[in-house]
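Hey, resending since the last one bounced:
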Amino acid sequence: MNTFFEKPGSYRIEKGDWHKKWYLYNVKIVKLLAIMFQGVLRKMITEEGSPIKYFLNLENDFIAFNQYLNRTISLSFDGTECLSCKAEKPIFRQGFCKNCFFEQPAAGDWIMRPELSTAHLGIADRDLEFEKKVQLQPHLVYLSLSSHLKVGVTRNNQIPTRWIDQGAHEAVSILSVPNRYLAGVGEVALKTILSDKTNWRKMLQNDFEPIDWSEAIHQAVDHLPKDLKSYIIADPKIIKLEFPVLQYPEKVKSLNLEKENFYSGVLKGIKGQYLIFEDQTVYNIRSNEGTKVKIEIT
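The structure tokens again:
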């Protein structure tokens, strides 16, 4: 007698053909259960915790990423859109098209080189009112440990966000100043003995040098200019950060989604602004700001 499988509300599956139809049936179910998002990438929002919580705001969608560890994430390239003018143009840097990068105050040289700030003098770079709002806020000079000890600058209200974005395990603020220019002066002085860059590959591999914080702080303070000594933080506190990573990569493969168009992998961690996948692929959300993506989670 010819046997068959029969599912409620489905079709009869004859012997010899059932495995193919059963596979197609399951594929349909998986697709129905898949979670779909789409939008323009901006850097992930973070919330301090043990571990740190990560969120991706896609305008019409909001992804709480931590809950999708050990789930398959599929990314599809869907074009580019400038974060400023919203035009569908190639992204030049920092999420901006080429025109906006050279025109918008948020992309001025003083962003990367705070010692070039001039708002405290009433001198505009691109937009004095915008620059006053950012540059004339209280700033910190800090030391952080991600791959090695480095020096950096940020606004007071960006702690610990700045350290999280760098993938720092530990960090400490050593100088509190009233504006960005003075923070830049302090950073320039400390760059004579410390790096201001993170080795992103080592950071993602969780490969970092142990630090004697007492000695590091003492050495840094000694190298600050006399004019900044009055701004030294008297009792600096070491902050420790824990990232949601289940598996660190031994070798790091950076994903170029615009070139590949599609990628799918099991999410094993999030650190800095990187998604870390089981096959050792990593994807930097921040460096791909302005990329339009479709995201499927199964």
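The mean pLDDT is 91.

Sorry for the duplicate.
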